[in-house]
Design a protein that fits this description.
By secondary structure, this protein is an alpha+beta fold. It has a single domain, classed as 2,3-Dihydroxybiphenyl 1,2-Dioxygenase, domain 1. Strands 4-3-8-9-10-7-1-6-5-2-11 form an 11-stranded mixed beta sheet.
């Protein structure tokens, strides 16, 4: 499932995105951060635990060398981020692996006995882009996310620090 793959992203769940972005910038120099709200209609297809489900989150992305750092604040009650905060508090949530096709990567993972916890599609400027979180926590101690980047991202809502 992960052989010959590269970890492209490290993601943490936070309770307050604005405070976390400021802290990462001021204390560690990580940034600039591009900030988005992922929800309908930006996300065109969403699932949670095997069924269609609208969820919402704010996220911030910053590049650190070859690895993207992602901070996620849940904005709705039923999703993998809230589950994490309730069980573990803020912290490491998942590693992300960029794949050419989320559908193919999910198929391979499912054949290996893993299931999709949550997924989303359509966050790119042209309605492309997809992600799927796999239920790997019992085996790896964290979730693995498969990421199919869109050809073009929508413009961020904000950038921190402001330009």
């Amino acid at each position: 499932m992960l052989a010959n793959r590269t970890i492209n992203q490290v993601a943490l769940v936070v309770e307050d995105l604005d405070e976390a972005v400021r802290r990462y910038w001021e204390r560690f120099g990580i940034g600039p951060w591009r900030i988005y709200t992922y929800q309908a209609p930006l996300l065109k297809q969403m699932t949670y635990r095997g069924r269609p489900h609208d969820y919402r989150m704010r996220l911030a992305l910053a590049q650190m060398g070859d690895v993207m750092i992602e901070l996620i604040q849940p904005l709705s009650d039923e999703n993998v981020y809230v589950e994490h905060l309730r069980r573990k508090g803020p912290g490491l949530h998942h590693i992300g692996v960029v794949v050419p096709s989320v559908d193919d990567a999910v198929g391979d993972a499912e054949r290996s006995g893993f299931r999709v916890l949550q997924s989303g599609r359509g966050h790119g400027l042209h309605g492309d882009g997809a992600f799927a979180y796999m239920d790997t926590e019992d085996v790896l101690g964290m979730i693995v996310e498969f990421i199919e980047f869109p050809k073009e991202r929508v413009a961020p809502e904000a950038v921190y620090p402001p330009r």
